[in-house]
């Protein structure tokens, strides 16, 4: 039996209060539709069809080339959308049609496999994924007869008082026998409060015709739909917990996992420690033995073995082995810190390389700079890399000692073992081993304080 997957992603998401299509709102750094697609692809279906709305051009770039896309120009309900999806399936003879909404990012492949297995094993006309919840508000209710058999689904807005007390909800995930689905869809009528064609009506139609219906219960979080920003936040929390639990099972230490925020795709090796209020995003990697946090944001960055990064922001930075970053450092794109180096308190770096063992301990800006090995950059040092038109490079050699409050006006080169005096503005290259001092002659005015007081009114 071939399996063809249909994802219903045409919802406008008006409760999200956003111009962005609902399925493009992100959970753990990925659009919701990407999570559903990943789960579907893990099933290796024979075909995936995604139904998008009139603004579907925004969704298409996130779907991939292995997906057939159809457009629901008028949002007339899930039954109408499923019918449009069937038009993209060349034949439905003997297939199983797996239908899921595009706003259930917590859906996992193993549950869908179990639902398909149930469908095949029982010869069901339709198998539906359900869950029992404390507060079923807003969800369709699963209707069962006196023998506990599924006989239909009633949407919340159409449910009576007794039906609303039912706490088994419809997750919107189904496996249909393709021929029966194709036969039943034309029989669906928009006889409901919203005037839409409900896919759920197919279940009642098939049950009334004597076809077997079955349900598989799962945990509520897995089928939690996202229709508002508060529901999006809850989905994010569930996904964050899932990602963190997986990392901890693999040997990553998190003393307070509820305060560690990771996007999908972040790689953290066993033996690393993530402290509270750490945010790791994009293509970020943390090596074994690294200690990250508290209060670190790292995006598209790498943190090497046994490094310590705390109270800092990293964007496109490469932190090597045994490096110390922070507190309160800002590493901008193109920053590379070699083994054993340091970017300390209130240090900002951009497009610069700090050689092995070199230190930039505090209160410095280092931009467009190459620093050799075992150099020391004094407090308050600034590389003046921008002349208002172009950026220029500063080169600091091995074992150089840059005095505090030195202004290095690029382009300029400081040779190996060279020294600059504190408070100097260096505009010319400094030879290896030389001392460069640039200061005006210090002057002293005797009795200045007394003279000043005499002038005061």
Task: Please characterize this protein's 3D structure.
This protein is an alpha/beta fold and 457 residues long. It starts with a strand and ends with a helix.
What can be said about this structure in brief?
The chain has 457 residues and is an alpha/beta fold. The chain has two domains: 221 residues, Spore Coat Polysaccharide Biosynthesis Protein SpsA, Chain A (Alpha-Beta Complex); 191 residues, UDP N-Acetylglucosamine Acyltransferase, domain 1, CATH 2.160.10. The protein is built from eight helices and 38 strands.
Spatial extent as radius of gyration = 31 Å
CATH arch. level architecture of the largest domain:
Alpha-Beta Complex
Distance between the termini: 100 Å
Task: Name the structural class.
Answer: alpha/beta
Q: What share of the residues does DSSP label as strand, in percent?
A: 25-35%
Q: What number of domains?
A: 2
State the CATH superfamily name of the largest domain. Answer: Spore Coat Polysaccharide Biosynthesis Protein SpsA, Chain A
Task: Report mean pLDDT, rounded to a whole number.
Answer: 94
CATH class wording of the largest domain:
Alpha Beta
The helix fraction, in percent, is 10-25%
Number of helices: 8
Q: Which overall shape is indicated by the principal axes computed on the Cα atoms?
A: elongated
Low-confidence stretches: none
Count of β-strands: 38
| Annotated CATH topology of the largest domain | Spore Coat Polysaccharide Biosynthesis Protein SpsA, Chain A
């Amino acid at each position: 039996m071939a399996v063809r997957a249909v994802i219903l992603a045409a919802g406008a998401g008006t409760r999200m209060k956003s111009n962005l299509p609902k399925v493009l709102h992100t959970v753990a750094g990925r659009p919701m539709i990407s999570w559903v697609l990943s789960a579907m692809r893990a099933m290796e279906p024979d075909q995936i069809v995604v139904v998008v709305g009139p603004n579907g051009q925004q969704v298409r770039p996130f779907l991939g080339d292995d997906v057939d896309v159809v457009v629901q120009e008028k949002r007339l309900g899930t039954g109408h959308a499923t019918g449009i999806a069937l038009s993209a399936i060349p034949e439905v003879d003997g297939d199983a049609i797996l239908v899921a909404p595009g706003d259930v990012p917590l859906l996992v492949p193993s549950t869908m496999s179990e639902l398909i297995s149930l469908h095949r094993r029982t010869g069901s006309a339709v198998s539906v994924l359900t869950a029992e919840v404390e507060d079923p508000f807003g969800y369709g209710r699963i209707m069962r007869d006196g023998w506990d058999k599924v006989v239909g689904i009633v949407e919340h807005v159409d449910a009576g008082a007794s039906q609303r007390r039912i706490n088994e909800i419809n997750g919107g995930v189904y496996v249909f026998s393709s021929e029966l689905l194709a036969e039943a869809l034309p029989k669906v009528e928009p006889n409901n409060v919203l005037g839409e064609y409900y896919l759920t009506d197919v279940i009642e139609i098939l049950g009334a015709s004597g076809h077997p219906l079955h349900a598989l219960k799962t945990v509520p979080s897995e089928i939690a739909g996202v229709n508002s920003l508060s529901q999006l936040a809850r989905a994010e929390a569930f996904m964050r917990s899932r990602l963190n639990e997986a990392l901890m099972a693999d040997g990553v230490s998190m003393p307070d996992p509820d305060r560690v925020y990771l996007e999908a795709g972040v790689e953290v090796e066993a033996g690393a420690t993530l402290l509270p209020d750490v945010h790791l995003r994009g293509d970020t990697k943390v090596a074994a033995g690294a200690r990250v946090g508290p209060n670190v944001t790292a995006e598209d960055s790498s943190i090497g073995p046994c490094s310590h990064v705390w109270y800092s922001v990293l964007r496109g930075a490469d932190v090597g082995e045994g490096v110390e970053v922070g507190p309160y450092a800002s590493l901008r794109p193109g920053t590379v810190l070699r083994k054993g180096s340091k970017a300390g308190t209130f240090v900002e770096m951009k497009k610069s390389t700090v050689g092995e063992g070199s230190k930039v301990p505090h209160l410095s800006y280092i931009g467009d700079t190459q620093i050799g090995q075992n150099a020391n950059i004094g407090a308050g040092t600034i590389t003046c890399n921008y002349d208002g038109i172009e950026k220029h490079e500063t080169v600091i050699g091995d074992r150089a000692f840059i005095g505090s409050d030195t202004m290095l006006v690029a382009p300029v080169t400081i040779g190996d073992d060279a020294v600059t005096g504190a408070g100097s503005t260096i505009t010319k290259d400094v030879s290896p081993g030389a001392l460069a001092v640039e200061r005006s002659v210090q002057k002293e005015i005797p009795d200045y304080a007394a003279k000043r007081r005499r002038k005061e009114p």
